[in-house]
Every structure is written in C-alpha cells, then in structure tokens.
Amino acid sequence: MFPGVFGFEWTAGNLIFLGIFNSVICLVLGAIAVAIVRGARDFANGKQDELRWDDDFEELPPTARACRHAFTGEIKHRVCPNGFDCRECTPHSRLLERGDCVADLRAQERSASGFEIEAECMYHRGHTWVREEGDGTVTVGLDDFASRLVGPPDDAELPAVGSRLVVNGSAWNLKRGSATIRILCPVDGEVVATGGAGQGWYLRIRPLNGAMDTRHLLRGGEVSAWIANEMERLQLALSNSQLGASLADGGLPVQDFTAANPEADWDSIYAEFLFGA
Amino acid sequence: MDRQLIPRGLKRSPLWKFSLWILPWCALLAVGIYAIFLCLARGLNQTNMDNRFAFGLWIYLDLTVIALGAGAFFTGFLLYILKRKELKAVINSAVVLGFICYSGAVAVLMVDVGQPLRAWFTFWHPNVHSMLTEVTFCITCYLTVLFVEYLPILLKNRKLRMIPSFLVFEFELHKVMYVLAGVGTFLSFFHQGSLGGLYGVLRGRPFAYREGIAIWPSTFFLFILSAIAAGPSFILLTTTVVQKISGKTLVKREVLGYLGKISGSLLIVYVLMKSIDTLVWLNSTSPAEGVQPFEFYMWNPFGTWILFAEIVLLGLVPGLMLLTSTIRNRTGWLITAALLTCGGVALNRFVLTIQTLALPTLPFDEFLSYLPSWQEVAAFLAVLAYGVLFYSLSFRYLPLFPQERELAHS
C-alpha cells in the first residue's frame, strides 16, 4: 500500500494503481471535510432557520405556495419562487410601484369566511399577525384562522427575551395533544417581551436595524382574499378525498377545528397551513 | 414515537401492519445469520463449492446485485453531472438500492472469502496486477461513497433534521454531492468493468476468454454497458413494486417512462456490442484456442437456447420494447420489459459464473454440476431479507420519493 510495507514495489503498476486510489480516498475525505467545515460555519452564522425554511417551502404543495397576488387576481396562477419573501420579488415591487395594488387598499371587511381580521394588522403566510406599536416595536400573535385550527394549546414554548429571530425561522412552539407545532416568525428582530394565549399576543419584537421591513407581509384588501383561499384549502384538507370539499356553505368556522375533526391528519394539516414542519 | 418519525405529509401503514410485514423478513435474516455463522466458524465445507467449482451462488449473487445496483451511480451521474433533473424523483431510492446492493455484496464476499478479520490484508498488501484487487478497492471505496450519499437522506428524517447541526451538515453535504457522484461514476466504471474483465482474462477457460483493447478484454466493456442498461430498469421495477405494495403513487408516470427509455437505449447498444463480441468469439477467439465453440453448447442444460435467451429474448426484445413509445407508455408492458432486462443481466452473470465453471476445459475434465447447500441459500436469502428490511425502514421513515407528497395532493 505504501513504501516500506511488505509487497510494495517501486513499479509503474504500483504507483499508478495506488496513486489513483489514494487520490480517490483523499477526494472523498476532502469533500466530507469541506461539508463539515462549511456546516460549522453556517451553524455559527445561525443559518439553520433559513435552510430549514428553504427545505420546508420546497416540499409544500403548489396550492400552498400560491403567490399573494394570485389570490387577488392581480396575477394569474403564480406559484411563489421566493419562499414568501416578497422583499426580493420583482413582480411584487412592480405592482407596488404601479400604485393600484390591492394591498394598498384599506380593508373593508372585519372578517373573511368567518375568521376575524384586523385592519391595522399585517399578516404572515404562516398565520401570524404583526401590529406596529408606537415605540418602534411590533407585537406578534397567532391569527384567528390558526387559533381556531389549533384550538386552545396545552402548552407554549416561547423564546427567551433577548433572542434574535429571523423571518420564516422559529418564533415559538405550541403543543396540542402529542403534536408540537412550530410557528414561523413573521419579522426579523430581537424579542423584548413575551405574552401568551391568555393575553392575545405572543411576542413583542424590536427591529435590529431601526426600521422594520414588512413588504413581505399581507395587508389591506388582500387579507380577506387570502383567508378565503385558506378556508377553501382547509375544506379540501378536511374532506374525504373522494368526495371533494363537502363542508356546508354559509356556516361559521368552529372554535377548535382539531377537536371537531379528531380523525383528520393534523400532522399534515399543521405543516401545510402553519408551515413549521 | 413511530408517528413522530414518519415524514410530515406522508401517510404510512399503522405500526402493527408494518411489524407484520417485516416479521417474516426478520426470521429469514436470522436463519441466514445462523448459516453465515456456520460458514465462518466451520469453514467453506458448509457449502457445496470445492476447488474446481470455486464460484457458486454467492459470486453469482454478488455480480447480479452489483450490476442491478449500478442504477445508483448511473442515476447520480445523469442527475448531478449531466443535470437530468427528471431523475431527482428517484435519486434517493436509487442511492438506498445501491447501498443495499453493495453492502449486501460486500457482506457475502466476506463470508465467501472467509477470515473477515484479515480483510485489511488486501488493502495493505495489494496485488496490483489482479482484477480482483481492483474490484475490492473500487467496491469498498464506492460503498463508502454510497454511505456518504445516504447520509443526507438519513438526516432528512423528521426527528434528525430538528437537530440544527445535522440540518446544516445535510445542506452542505448535498452541495458536494456532484463530487461524490463523479467519484462514484469513476469507481463504478472500473469495478463493473473489472468484474467482467475477471472472466475475460481466464485463458484456461476458453468459454469465457475474450480478446479486447490493451489490458482490458471485451467483457470489461460489456459488463459496464449491461450494468448501466439494467440499473435504470431495476429502479423502475423496484419503484413499481413499492407503489404496488404501499398503494401509493410515488413518482409521475413520465419518470418511469424516462427510466425505461434510458434503459432501452443502452440495452440496444449493449445487445449490438454483445452480438459482435459473440460473433468474434465464435469465429475467431474460440477456434484460435483450439476449441470449436458449439462444443460448449452440447452440455445440457446449457444448450444454444441460453445464448438465444441472453441476447434476443432478454436483450433485443426488451430493448426494442423500451424504445417503442407506444409500448413504453403502457405500464404493463413497461414493467414486463424492465423485468426482462433485469432477467437478462442476471442470466449473463449466471452464464459467466456457473456455466463457465461447469464446462470441461481439458480432455480429462468432466462436466460439473453444482447445487448450493442450504447454508449458501440461507446466506443468499439473508441478503434479500436485509435489503427488504433496509428499504422498508428507509421508505417508512425517510422521504425517499420527493414527488410523493405532491402526488398525494393531486
């Protein structure tokens, strides 16, 4: 195998054969070492939340990845390619520049498909609301759709005050039965206070660089269209696949979907609507 | 706990049903492990092989599973090097199959060669002029590569990906996958070839001996070609079987058709090369060795039918079937053609291993017959059971088919 080992000879055959295979072994070990070093660097830079979201987003069905402007009819049948981060999205910027974006219209409705919506709040696609406070912080809570979907949680794991959160990273965890539901963070920032289900909000967050970029959050006239679409998807998810959507029209959503539909595959439904896989 | 390990959004059978499924395979594996213990503890007298019939069921199994496992390296090559994105739908399954095939082959080789504690000798004191040394180096290196390729799939497990350090490692490992795919292709190319070359250089066995290019006999190239032709068919076949057993659609129909098309194209090239090789052997190589080639086919049951079956029935016919789009588009025919292709490569390995050794070569030689002992069969079945168990557990707890969730929604 190596010079000095019994059987090794300084011949072309030995040198070519063993040279090639030692190179191959070095190449494989080198590739693994590169992956470990880069992985350690990503870990130190806190990239794990971003990577997890990229992965989770890829696995979502196209219906769950529909563009916000497809709900309002501003764009037809578009699947979001940006992980719901409209801050980097060219079509979104163009629509905002045009000035007649549905998101700019003030919300007329106080509810959509039976779910409450707040005109002064912005919404994240993972079903959290964001309200700007006067002191530069924002308050974050679970929207009415998610609250009814999960029902009253058995427990909540909130981040410590001082934690830094990123958009689409973990914000907090809810426990319902045996399920742990990861709620995605709608904004970047540092946690300055935590609340809970009883107080109607979960986190108060201060932006890291002064101003908070909220271009990716749903607002105004587009929220009701989005909620209507979510309700339609939920009906399909809860219905017998052979029958299609079969909930009665005109009714009001129950307070606790989880308790009302114990046979449903809640594991998948939480992942598909709240995204925290 | 079991439910928490199953990937989100995927439906799997209840645990009791899954336990019932794996129970008989566990029993088969246990019997096989006992047989392996007997062979290692008492020696190869537990088998029906001897000094004349030194290659038996195990070497046949090795050659066949390594050929069928070629789907892993070839799919990786097409996806990561040639960027055929359609194959992303089956790459994870292909890697798992490759890992099963190669680890199973290495395990059986350890029993066959014996003295596993001295296995390192072959690496530390290699005979660089031996085809088998090349095979040993390539197979062990490639098994390591397959293990590294399997790691990101394993780390996709729902519980494991909750660990942040695993998540980032999996991501970065995925980024260097094209390097591993390239290395895997290089290694597979040479060991598939060397396994064929091993027979081609047997000058004392004129039935197997072949001429070739430089140091490589024609069987070197034919083994590579037949393996990359059968590999995609084996993936197609296993995917269909898993779909049938699980009752789920795991990949889009066009992916199966694409695998069939790749397999068919390569199979036709292989059949052409094999036909030329056979004609050269019949008319030149064998007579030059002083043997009339058709004498080899006078020993029953190895008549000329086996040559016809290998080249036409299990080569040309499935090749043309897979290349004809109207036939390929009909699932039943597609599966039949894939089955014939895999059968063809298995028959080719059988002919080169068993028929070669059974035929007399010297005037005083007799036609030898060989039937494996129960220990050999049990060890063979243990590899099969190991494969089924490994794949079943991977399918249950890992996202092997990226399109499964999307197809379940549609």
Write the topology of this structure.
The complex is a heterodimer of chains A (277) and B (410).
Chain A: H1 12-44, H2 48-59, H3 68-71, H4 90-98, E1 111-112, E2 115-116, E3 122-124, E4 128-132, E5 138-142, H5 144-150, E6 155-157, E7 164-165, E8 170-176, E9 179-184, E10 189-196, E11 201-206, H6 222-238, H7 257-260, H8 266-274, E12 275-276
Antiparallel strand pairs in A: 1-2, 3-4, 4-5, 5-11, 6-8, 7-10, 8-9, 9-12, 10-11
Chain B: H1 2-5, H2 15-42, H3 57-68, H4 70-81, H5 88-113, H6 121-124, H7 131-154, H8 164-175, H9 177-200, E1 212-213, E2 216-217, H10 218-246, H11 253-288, H12 304-323, H13 325-328, H14 331-358, H15 374-397, H16 404-409
Antiparallel strand pairs in B: 1-2
Helix pairs in contact in B: 2-15, 3-5, 3-14, 4-5, 4-9, 4-10, 5-7, 5-15, 7-8, 7-9, 9-10, 10-11, 10-14, 11-12, 11-14, 12-14
General description of the model:
The complex is a heterodimer of chains A (277) and B (410). Chain A has 277 residues and is an alpha+beta fold. Chain A has helices at residues 12-44, 48-59, 68-71, 90-98, 144-150, 222-238, 257-260, 266-274, and strands at 111-112, 115-116, 122-124, 128-132, 138-142, 155-157, 164-165, 170-176, 179-184, 189-196, 201-206, 275-276. In chain A, the strands form three sheets. Chain A has a six-stranded antiparallel sheet. In chain A, strands 6-8-9-12 form a four-stranded antiparallel sheet. In chain A, 36% of the residues are buried. With 410 residues, chain B is mainly α. Chain B is 71% helix and 1% strand. Chain B has a two-stranded antiparallel ribbon with strand order 1-2. Chain B starts with a helix and ends with a helix.
